[in-house]
Amino acid sequence: MSMNRGQAWNLLTQYNKEPFHLRHAITVEHIMGWYARELGYNDQAEFWSIVGLLHDLDFEMWPEEHCEKSQELMRAAGVEESIVRATASHGWGLWVDIKPEHEMEKVLYACDELTGLIGAAALMRPSKSTADMELKSLKKKFRDKKFAAGCSRDVITNGAELLGWDLDKLLDMTLQAMQVEEESIEAAVAALA
Fold first, then answer.
1. Percent of the chain predicted with pLDDT > 70
2. What are the residue ranges of helices labelled H in the chain?
3. Average pLDDT, the chain
4. Tens of pLDDT along 24-83?
5. What was the pLDDT predicted at 193?
6. Residue-level pLDDT at 2
7. CA distances to 13, 109, 161 from 6, in Å
8. What is this structure's pTM?
9. Considering just the CA atoms, what is the radius of gyration of the chain in Å?
């Protein structure tokens, strides 16, 4: 079936209740939509967003089966195979052998961890926002392995390579995406309360 945002949200919230996980899902949803439009996939923006929203479907309840269990849950719910594959591919080399092939899959793989790093860096700023963050300060946080240590620098670097981009381009574009989408993300998160 072709899935809409409402159906995707209902599926996500069956297995995800933690505000942290829901915020991450909403963030990646918005960043993926931004990337779709920026890279010329306007007609696929909703699809890219839904993949972003559902990418960690299984993580809250089955972290040890991440990207495996999600495939089972999605197929049981009748989710189209392109979404099943795309969401699972962000676990390539860590949990699954599904290599990101489509540009959308590569973007998800590259920016999933990076959105967490940028979000953590924003919280350290007086503004608590990405709005006044510059690429050079993000690069400094990226190089500091102790900062947001749970965000894999290897995955982010590999993601840039998969896309054929240098790391600066990936950092800069994802920072721009976070800046452009920040208000929409905050509004969506506030609506959960």
1. 99
2. 5-15, 19-38, 45-54, 69-76, 81-89, 103-123, 135-143, 153-163, 167-190
3. 96
4. 999 999 999 999 999 999 999 999 999 999 999 999 999 999 999 999 999 999 999 999
5. 77
6. 78
7. 11, 24, 34
8. 0.96
9. 16
Rounded distance, CA 65 to CA 95, Å?
Answer: 8
Question: Cα 110–52–175 angle (5° rounding)?
Answer: 50
Task: Please report, for the chain, the start and end positions of each structural domain, with discontinuous segments joined by +.
Answer: 5-190
Left (φ > 0), alpha (ψ -120 to 50) or beta: where does 113 sit? alpha
Give the long-range contacts of residues 61-65, CB within 8 A, separation 24 or more: 61/15, 61/16, 65/95
Of 132, 118, 137, whose CA–CA distance to 178 is shortest? 118
pLDDT average, residue stretch 119-131: 96
Query: Could you tell me which residues are beta bridge partners of residue 92?
Result: 96
Nearest to 62 by CA among 52, 74, 53: 74
Q: Residue 17 and residue 21: Cα distance in Å, rounded?
A: 7
Burial of 110 (0-12, 13-18, 19+ CB in 10 A): buried
Q: For residues 109 and 107, give the distance between their C-alpha atoms in angstroms, rounded to a whole number.
A: 5
